[in-house]
Amino acid sequence: MKRQDRKQKTQIGNRNAFLWRKIFLVASSIFLASTTPLFPQSSAEEIPYTAEEPPKFFSFSSGDFPVIETPKPQPPKSERKAQTAEELSEIRAYNEKIRLENEIWQQYQKDIERNNKIKSYPKKLLKNADQPRSLFYLYKVKEDSEKYLDTFHGLYARFQTKQGTLASINRISSPDTVKTGTILILPIQQGMYIPKKADSALEILLQKEFAGKISDETKTYEIDGTEFYFIPDMNFSPTIMAFFHDNGMQLPLSKKIVTSEFGYRTSPITGQWKFHAGIDLAAPLGTEVFACKSGTVRTVAFSEIYGNYIVILHNGNTTSLYAHLSKTLVKQGQTVKTGDVIGLVGTTGASTGPHLHFEVRENGTPTDPGKIIKN
């Protein structure tokens, strides 16, 4: 009887041990399932980027951009030079100002560096990348002829931007328009900023050149109410670069024979004392007329005064007008280069004989062409 009891207890103990072992194994598998990833462990570079698609439109006010006071570190003044408590206070205030200015300049340089690093990252790692603190900065051009920091070429080099980037976002139509006092937007992201509404011949050309790269998916920045399409990593093409640097105006005829100067004169048509908004250049009927500078043809038309005439829009809201033509050889919207033949000399409109009436206007105001064209 005792043997049977002992045997029965042994069997029960074995069954219990088996059950506890089974419970332990099940519990262990549940624990491991809860702590083990569903997919095999992988390196950070293999983890897919699953963030939501970033927005395509961003709106900014330039008043919120950090302002760079000087594009170079400034040394502090020594407090030992202070002779009075007032001078010490002034030096400390100056040094604090310099410290803050240097911090912004250093932050700009770091943001440029961060952006350059980000461009080499795979898309799946962008979420964890060290992003620039600000996408845009401001700088007011100051006189600095020694380091050329008051010129377009000196500034784009110093701020490590592409020429096309600095020119397009600031709507600079010619390097000569950048002067002391000009306020520049300095983008961290390099590329072309194409305005939705073109205001100059250069912007019209940019819209045409990058039309194939602009779509509903193109990132758009709005700055102070002006919208720009952003085309990353692009710059001026060689053609646009040449157009951008084409600063001088050339004579629209092969020879310069001025028969009537700019300013007030007695009109040969009415005999009245009247303002003459251009110059008259004598030439035989049918002589070729050249574009005085690269630009976009704005107008090809006829009027009772000008006869057949052409207006070309150049950089910086400058226009040139060619009147009394016997024939026009260009169309509205056409891009022309300096020296292209655009028409032939005639005597149409209010004219007493074959000649070219030539005008140059800056922002709509007549300017003496004789002072600005190259002979």
Written description of the protein model:
The chain is of the alpha+beta class. It has helices at 2-35, 85-118, 152-158, 163-169, 201-209, 238-244; strands at 57-60, 67-68, 136-140, 183-187, 191-195, 220-223, 226-232, 249-250, 258-260, 263-266, 273-276, 279-282, 288-290, 295-303, 307-313, 318-328, 335-336, 341-345, 355-362, 365-367, 373-374. Strands 9, 12, 13, 14, 15, 16, 17, 18, 19 and 20 form a ten-stranded antiparallel beta sheet that branches. The chain is elongated.
Key terms:
single chain; alpha+beta; Glucose Permease (Domain IIA); 10-stranded antiparallel beta sheet; 4-stranded mixed beta sheet; 6 helices; 26% helix
Secondary structure category: alpha+beta
* Global outline: elongated
Oligomeric organization of the protein chains: single chain
Helix content: 25-40%
Mean of all residue-level pLDDT scores: 82
Low-confidence parts lasting 5 or more residues at pLDDT below 50?
A: 28-53
Q: Main β-sheet, in a few words?
A: 10 strands, antiparallel
Number of helices: 6
How large, in whole angstroms, is the Cα Rg?
Answer: 36 Å
Task: Lay out the secondary structure.
Elements: H1 2-35, E1 57-60, E2 67-68, H2 85-118, E3 136-140, H3 152-158, H4 163-169, E4 183-187, E5 191-195, H5 201-209, E6 220-223, E7 226-232, H6 238-244, E8 249-250, E9 258-260, E10 263-266, E11 273-276, E12 279-282, E13 288-290, E14 295-303, E15 307-313, E16 318-328, E17 335-336, E18 341-345, E19 355-362, E20 365-367, E21 373-374
Overview in brief:
The protein has helices at 2-35, 85-118, 152-158, 163-169, 201-209, 238-244, and strands spanning 57-60, 67-68, 136-140, 183-187, 191-195, 220-223, 226-232, 249-250, 258-260, 263-266, 273-276, 279-282, 288-290, 295-303, 307-313, 318-328, 335-336, 341-345, 355-362, 365-367, 373-374. It has 375 residues and is an alpha+beta fold.
